[in-house]
């Protein structure tokens, strides 16, 4: 979306500053892009100087202007010359501009949240709506107090609809993001233990996810996962229409059967047959959420078959490839207890001579970290894996519990760093194996994969 500097000033109440070349009369300068990173500024961008934990954007205002930013939004004096907009808080200003943009863009917006699968679901929803509409969406997982307003501002004004991801670490965050995005449709994928360190219980997490549904207008639509007991109860808080999806008998958008084929999964909804190469039951759940949203837009299910057949996983989000005759499942982007179990189930179904899981420590679990890792270890052992590898920190508890649950010492190994795990695997893996890589972002399990495949 494009605005004039004067419109940005109106949205934020900023004081316009300039010099001989850039005077307050420059308010009609056009803003064609939005940035909080001086390294990625392009000509025509407006740069917001954000104070971070380690860096202060005010130190990079001059660099942003030199790269072609038309102006910078600042909250304190800077030595750089050029057009500046002075505000009390640059984060609030970014959100205010996004709110202003949303008020002037009255198109339908879909908000997606959940403890796991929200980025993949967001991408799938956007793809399926795209069979008829021009759709803007969150880039990657830009879903927080900075990423969501940037995503909203970067939606082309001529789009017919948008799909944005709403993330959270604490109670109240989704409610605040929803005041900016103002979604008409809210999708909740699930409620799990991700970010439990910031909550007293999983019910607190459920309440935080429910904020998206509570923010919907009365004529809005809640799209809820019928297979998650906590999520499906959210319908009680919404007076408008609710659409449920899943494999449960009562789901309105229901997978009537699922058949795993060598390279794909076949399922049907309302008699329409779909086939996807995406991996695992959780992927089918994400697709069902997308079908439910498309149905809300009046798109016929038969229009979606080709799109679903062509869906591809995001980077490190269930990607599959062959290495030395072994099948590699790269789901290393992030992890939490529910997502890890789902991928272990997927690994178990993989046709293979040996099944190997490389699971990095799951972060942000607080006081429950030890127990949740131990539970995952027992779950992995009960699946009968041929090898379980834990990487870093609390994953040691996972390995210990897996041994107690039946895996031999040589079948459950712990490594302090991902590179060591990868070096071991390079010698251990043989043709016919299936290997899963999964862990929290900060564990960097992808480095184990890279070390395994190094030439």
Q: Key terms for this structure?
A:
455 residues; alpha/beta; Udp-n-acetylmuramoylalanyl-d-glutamate--2,6- Diaminopimelate Ligase, Chain: A, domain 1; UDP-N-acetylmuramoyl-L-alanine:D-glutamate ligase; Protein-Tyrosine Phosphatase, Chain A; 3 domains; globular
3D structure, described in words:
Helix 8 links the parallel strand 12 (221-225) and strand 13. The longest helix has 16 residues, at 281-296. The protein has 455 residues and is an alpha/beta fold. It has helices at residues 5-12, 61-66, 90-103, 118-129, 147-153, 173-181, 202-214, 229-232, 281-296, 305-309, 337-349, 369-382, 395-404, 418-428, 446-453, and strands at 3-4, 15-17, 30-31, 33-35, 45-48, 71-74, 84-86, 109-113, 135-137, 161-165, 185-188, 221-225, 241-246, 253-254, 258-260, 265-269, 272-276, 319-323, 326-330, 354-360, 387-391, 412-415, 433-438.
Main structural class:
alpha/beta
Strand content: 15-25%
What Rg is obtained from the alpha carbons, in whole angstroms?
24 Å
Cα distance, first to last residue? 46 Å
Helix content: 25-40%
Across the major sheet, the strand order is 9-10-8-11-12-13-14
Poorly predicted residue ranges: none
């Amino acid at each position: 979306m494009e605005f004039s500097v004067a419109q940005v000033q109106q949205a934020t109440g900023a004081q316009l500053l300039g010099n001989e070349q850039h005077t307050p009369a420059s308010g009609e300068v056009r803003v064609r892009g939005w940035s909080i990173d001086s390294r990625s500024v392009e000509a025509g961008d407006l740069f917001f100087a954000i104070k971070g934990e380690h860096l202060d954007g005010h130190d990079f205002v001059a660099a942003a202007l030199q790269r072609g930013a038309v102006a910078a939004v600042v909250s304190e004096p800077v030595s750089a010359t050029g057009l500046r907009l002075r505000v009390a808080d640059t984060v609030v200003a970014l959100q205010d501009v996004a709110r202003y943009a949303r008020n002037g863009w009255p198109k339908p917006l879909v908000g997606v949240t959940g403890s796991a699968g929200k980025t993949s679901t967001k991408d799938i929803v956007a793809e399926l709506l795209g069979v008829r509409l021009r759709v803007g969406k969150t880039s990657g997982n830009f879903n927080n107090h900075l990423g969501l307003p940037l995503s909203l501002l970067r939606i082309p004004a001529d789009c017919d609809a948008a799909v944005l991801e709403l993330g959270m670490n604490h109670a109240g965050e989704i409610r605040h993001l929803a005041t900016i995005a103002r979604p008409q449709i809210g999708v909740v994928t699930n409620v799990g233990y991700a970010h439990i360190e910031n909550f007293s219980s999983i019910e607190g997490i459920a309440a935080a996810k429910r904020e998206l549904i509570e923010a919907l207008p009365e004529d809005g639509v809640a799209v809820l996962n019928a297979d998650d007991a906590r999520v499906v109860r959210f319908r009680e808080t919404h007076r408008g229409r609710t659409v449920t999806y899943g494999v449960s008998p009562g789901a309105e958008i229901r997978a009537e059967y699922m058949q795993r084929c060598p390279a794909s999964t076949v399922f049907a909804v309302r008699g329409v047959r779909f086939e996807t190469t995406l991996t695992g039951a959780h992927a089918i759940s994400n697709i069902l959420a997308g079908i439910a949203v498309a149905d809300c837009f009046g798109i016929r299910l038969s229009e979606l078959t080709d799109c679903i057949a062509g869906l591809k996983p995001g980077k490190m989000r269930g990607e599959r490839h062959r290495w030395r005759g072994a099948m590699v499942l790269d789901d290393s982007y992030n992890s939490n207890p529910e997502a890890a179990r789902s991928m272990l189930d997927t690994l178990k179904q993989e046709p293979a001579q040996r099944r190997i899981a490389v699971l990095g420590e799951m972060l942000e679990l607080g006081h429950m970290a030890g127990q949740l890792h131990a539970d995952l270890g027992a779950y992995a052992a009960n699946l009968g894996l041929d090898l379980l590898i834990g990487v870093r920190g609390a994953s040691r508890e996972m390995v210990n519990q897996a041994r107690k649950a039946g895996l031999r010492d040589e079948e459950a190994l712990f490594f302090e760093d991902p590179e060591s795990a990868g070096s071991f695997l390079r010698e251990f893996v043989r043709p016919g194996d299936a290997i899963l890589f999964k862990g929290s972002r900060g564990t960097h399990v992808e480095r184990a994969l890279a070390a395994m495949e190094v030439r």
